[in-house]
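Curious: explain these C-alpha cells?
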Amino acid sequence: MSSQYNNANESPGHLLWQVTAMWQKELRKVLDPLGLTPPQFVLLHGCLWLNERDHEGKGITQVMLAQFVSVDVNVTSQVLRALEKRGLINRNRHQTDTRANIITTTPEGTALANKAIQVVEEADRMFFDLVSDRKEEYMDIMRDFIRNKTAL
C-alpha cells in the first residue's frame, strides 16, 4: 500500500514528530545545566503546581500527578523515585488509602522547579516566537487535540 503523501512534509504526523523532536532538544539543552530531564521537570513542576492549588489540603497522589501531566503511572513512579533520591520531593503514605502516596516538593525541589520554570518558559517563548503572530490559532489547535484525545 502506498502513502497518500508525495513526501514526508505533507504528513501532519511527520511534521509534528519533527517539531516535537526539536522542542525536546531545546528542553534538554536548558534543563541539563539544572540536572533535570524533561520528564523530571514535568513531574516536579506538576507536583509544585498541583500542591499550590490544593486548597482543601487533601494532598496530591502519584496517580493524580500522572493524570495531570499525562505521563504513564509506572513511568511517573520511576521518575518520582529518582526525584526523591535527590531530595527534591517527598512521598508519604496517604492517610486513608494505603495504596496511595502523597507527593510534595521539598524546599530544594521547590527552588529547583521555580528555576527550571523560568528557563523553560524563556525557551518556550524563543522557540515559539516563529509563530508568534499565529500563536492563539496554534494554541487552539493543540487544545482541540487535547480536548478530543478520548475520541482518538
In short: The chain is about 60% helix and 5% strand. The mean pLDDT is 89. The radius of gyration is 18 Å.
